[in-house]
Amino acid sequence: MTLAERLRAALALPAPSTLLPGDLLEGASGDAVPAAVLVAITRRPEPGVLLTVRREHMRTHAGQIAFPGGRVDAEDADLAAAALREAEEEIGLPRSAVTLWGTADPYRTITGYHVVPVLGEVDADLPLLPHEQEVADMFEAPLAFLLDPANQRRMSAEYQGVQRHYYEIAWEGRRIWGATAAMLVNLRRRLDA
């Protein structure tokens, strides 16, 4: 069974107790904005994952590497529809080009979003076009590399006077960290459960 097949099968299992739930700063409200991201896994012998680099002027997560996605809008039928709409807007990925696998475990970001990863498969080397105002760059990183625990480093930094922990994955000079890395760690932990 391939890694992609194992991951698809793992989505049907109960959530393991080792998952990272996300961040909630002390004194912050428990309410969060619903959001969804598309974890687009490419159909190839060694599958990859499509990632974006957010523009520096973005209100949240400026300059960070992320899955295509964003907040759920009123017109979105569900989380998958929101993730597909956002991926189409951000990188020009046609909704019809994605074979949905299901949703993974939600993650609460430090900026107040309740993000649900939606996993799906896409053909390799689709002609995609990043949104000029939102996406500075996009790339594909190997799924096996991203899910390898040896590449998922636990880091710490002070944020608003509190020592915070987060995960980071370094790939070809790119720093994948924060919520994106945490969701990849959670996918790995699902595989291990």
From TrEMBL:
InterPro entries named in the record: CoAse (IPR045121), NUDIX_hydrolase-like_dom_sf (IPR015797), NUDIX_hydrolase_dom (IPR000086)
Matches recorded under Pfam families: NUDIX
Domain of life, source organism: Bacteria
Residue ranges of every copy of the Nudix hydrolase domain listed in the record: 32-164
Family matches, as PROSITE patterns: NUDIX
Cofactor(s) required, per the database record: Mg(2+); Mn(2+)
Keywords: Hydrolase, Magnesium, Manganese, Metal-binding
GO molecular function, one term: coenzyme A diphosphatase activity
NCBIfam families: PRK10707.1
PANTHER family assigned: MITOCHONDRIAL COENZYME A DIPHOSPHATASE NUDT8, NUDIX HYDROLASE
Protein name: 8-oxo-dGTP pyrophosphatase MutT (NUDIX family)
